[in-house]
Amino acid sequence: MHTKPNDNPRLRTIDITEFYHQGQPALLLRDPLRLGDNHVVLPRALAPALSLMDGTDDLHELHAELLLRFRMNVPVDVLQQLIEVLDEAFLLDNQRAAEAREHALLAYRAAPFRPPSMAGQSYPAEPRQLAQLLDGYLAAVNGTGPASAAGRGVISPHIDYPRGGPVYAAVWKRAAEMARAADLVILLGTDHYSMGDRITLTRQNYATPYGVLPTDQALVDALATEIGEQAAFAGELRHRGEHSLELVATWLHHMRGGKPVAMAPILTGSFMDFVMGRGDPANDRQLGAFLNVLSSAMAGRNVLVVASGDLAHVGPAFGGNPVDSAGRRGIDDADRGLMAELAAGRADGFFGAIKQVKDRNNVCGVSPFYLMLKLLGNVEGQTVAYDQCPADAGNTSLVSVCGMVFG
User: Fold this and answer.
1) Predicted confidence (pLDDT) at residue 3 exceeds the cutoff of 80
2) Please, which pLDDT band fits residue 167 given cuts at 50, 70 and 90?
3) Residue 185, H or E segment
4) Same domain, 20 and 139
5) Is it the case that residue 338 has pLDDT exceeding 60?
6) Which end of the chain is more exposed for a tag (fewer CB within 10 A), N or C?
7) What is the dihedral of CA 350, 182, 217, 130, to 10 degrees?
8) Final residue of a domain: which of 45, 73, 103?
9) What is the mean pLDDT of residues 373-390?
10) Cβ-contact 301, 183 below 8 angstroms
11) Cβ–Cβ under 8 Å, residues 326 and 333
12) Which domain holds residue 34?
């Protein structure tokens, strides 16, 4: 019997957000790899059908499973139409999506640089308008002047500028001389859609509206040699749309007055297996080799290590209960405890605090924060700013962010 590509549909790893569309509960499906041109909007009632698309059931088995497990009698032709819509958007794990991914990867690598994917949407694409926006945030910052140019580390948020602007401005104003003095910036950013990839590299240069920040090819090659070419670049296409590096690189470039600096843009994946007790990051061979190469590359150079990450993600927007004022105070207390470990340079203490509560607050910067501290070694930091930002229209969900500098 001939098997069609979508006879047993398997959904790729995608971003699914609940929202209301034309007054009705809906799902917004977005592809982190941006293989297609459009996002997909579906009725929320179809969520159980999506959850069953793991490649084990054909069309009629999906219909039967929905009836048996969810008491949903979804017509077979509706399920067929759903599969076709998902396939058209490259959201199914099949040959068509694999070919689109390969085409996109070749185009990404052939381009002269990675263009800023959020420019013109999350922030101005025109350099003068961008400078006015960021300078406005900086002008509103009160407090002490810049830290010493000899400083070695920065923790920056990567939330959008409208919500995180004041925290970005506070920490980057404090780190201004550090940014200007650096001749190499190692940028560690959360890989929001990692699929078991611990470290994801790219040889591509990163562009901002101010110009191009060149990637240190020799350093990337050394890292790839140590951790393996396949492992290092398996998820490279995620660099194309990942905001965690782009938003921070833009601030770095701004603080340097548009002057370029060599960069190592690195996406760091989830530590959830470590959090759940399956191994220990301190004993992980790949992470150890990764840190050794970076440490060697830092010798004799003026290197700034920037960790791009946010703190708690709690509330209905992240699958939790609404957060009230008492809940906000509890998040504040938990975040302060984590920041104390970070400021003391205790990478293992920071991770231990995350592991102790099984990361119940969904901290988004676990891997970049941990790896930065391990790389810097004996270092102390200072919390420059902290905030809790709204994450839904009812202000019942929040994302907490901080900015820190390390001497």
Assistant:
1) no
2) very high
3) strand 184-190
4) no
5) yes
6) N
7) 90
8) 103
9) 97
10) yes
11) no
12) 15-103
| Torsion angle of C-alpha atoms 143, 149, 150, 154, degrees rounded to 10 | 60
Same domain? For 45 and 150 the reply is no
Based on the structure, what is the number of domains in the chain?
A: 2
> Do the Cβ atoms of 86 and 16 come closer than 8 Å?
no
Q: How far apart are CA 249 and CA 236, in angstroms?
A: 18
Q: Which tokens hold the place of 368?
A: 């970049």
3-class secondary-structure state, position 328? helix
Residue 2, domain member (yes or no): no
In this structure, the answer to whether residues 315 and 382 fall within a common structural domain is: yes
- Contacts of residue 368, defined as CB under 8 A and 6 or more positions apart, other chains included, come to 188, 189, 190, 244, 268, 307, 308, 309
At 227, phi and psi to the nearest 5? -100, -5
Helix and strand tally (H, E) in the chain? 15, 13
* Confidence bin at 319 (pLDDT 50/70/90): confident
Domain boundary among 54, 76, 103: 103
Whether 113 is in a domain gets the answer no
If one compares 24 and 123, the residue with the highest pLDDT of the two is 123
Alpha-carbon gap, residue 374 to 371, rounded angstroms: 5
- Give yes or no: residues 126 and 97 share one domain: no
> CA–CA separation, 337 vs 354, rounded Å?
10
Type of residue numbered 51: S
d(CA 178, CA 302): 9
The CA angle 269-272-274, to the nearest 5 degrees, is: 105
Cα 394 from Cα 357, distance rounded (Å): 27
CA 157 vs CA 180, 182, 224, 305: distances in Å: 19, 20, 27, 14
Alpha-helical regions (H) of 89-126: 95-110
- Inside any domain, residue 186: yes
pLDDT tops 60 at residue 33: yes
Dihedral in degrees, nearest 10, Cα atoms 315, 365, 204, 37: -10
Residue 5, in any domain of the structure: no
Are 83 and 134 members of one domain? no
Instruction: Mark whether 189 and 91 lie in a shared domain.
Output: no
Which residues contact residue 98 at a Cβ distance below 8 angstroms, ignoring those fewer than 6 apart? none
| One domain for residues 147 and 271 | yes
Residue type, 397: S
Do residues 237 and 155 share a domain? Answer: yes
Residue 2 has what pLDDT?
Answer: 36
